[in-house]
Amino acid sequence: MIEVKNLEKTWRRGRSRVGLHPTSFTVPDGQIVGILGDNGAGKTTLLRSMAGLLHPNAGAALFDGKPAVKQYERISYITGEGSYYPNLTVGEYGAFLEDLHPAFDPKRYYEFLQFFQLPADVRITRLSTGQKARVELAAGFAKRVDYYLMDEPFLGKDVFTRKDFIKLMSAVLHGQETILITTHYLDDIEHFLDRAIVLHQGKIADDFMMEELQQQGQTLVDRMAKTCGWDPQRYLQFGEEEG
Q1: Nearest to residue 23, comparing CAs of 226, 201, 182?
Q2: pTM of the model
Q3: Rounded to an integer, what is the distance from CA 157 to the centroid of its chain?
Q4: Measured between alpha carbons, how far is 70 from 73 in angstroms, rounded to an integer?
Q5: Domain boundaries, the chain
Q6: Which of 226, 203, 202, 222 is nearest to 213 (CA)?
Q7: Torsion angle of the four alpha carbons 34, 164, 212, 186, in this order, in degrees rounded to the nearest 10
Q8: Closest CA to 97 of 107, 87, 106, 89
Q9: Cβ neighbours of residue 131 closer than 8 Å, sequence gap 6 or more
Q10: Would you state the pLDDT for residue 241?
Q11: pLDDT tens digits, one per residue of 19-73
Q12: Is domain 2-83+131-230 classified as CATH 3.40.50.300?
């Protein structure tokens, strides 16, 4: 189980404090949770603080009662920005991770490479942005862990690759893994999630089960628009303001 207890990571911007304000929630084992929100809502700050990549101002994120830094082998952090070493070949990067992470499965890594049609002998620096993102996904899910923290994993991927990977995730997961995922591709993940936590201005603005959303006949976009105060007719004011 994940327990986030008054986790805070803010910094000063002018007279205001921005980032992640004190946040608390729990996630039971096996749940797939979307950490959603508009740009600057605090999504990446939340995941990085949970993973121990940022030092929070206050609070804690616990995985079965322990912080991420004390159980590295049980957590995989996947980011669309990439955590690879660009001068390594795709195959060398896999060998590096096999030595580094006790839960890394090289066979599974190469299965992902084959699925994504990624050549093992090419240096990562020579790959396209989308191919680099696929390497990151292959490396992240080649770790057979209990917790996956995924920050914009579909960055730079075309619609077909995104859909293929979601199907692939569904196929390789056993149901016991817990996943937290941030993404702006709401339509792609709507039927993959069990739950959504919506951040707005650094705070939790909404937290609901997807089953509840479906019963109400709403979509993720509808619910988030209402939560974040987005007005779909606001563009109509543009001409009035110009006049």
Answers
A1: 201
A2: 0.87
A3: 14
A4: 9
A5: 2-83+131-230
A6: 222
A7: 50
A8: 106
A9: 116, 118
A10: 54
A11: 999 999 999 999 999 999 988 899 999 999 999 999 999 999 999 999 999 998 9
A12: yes
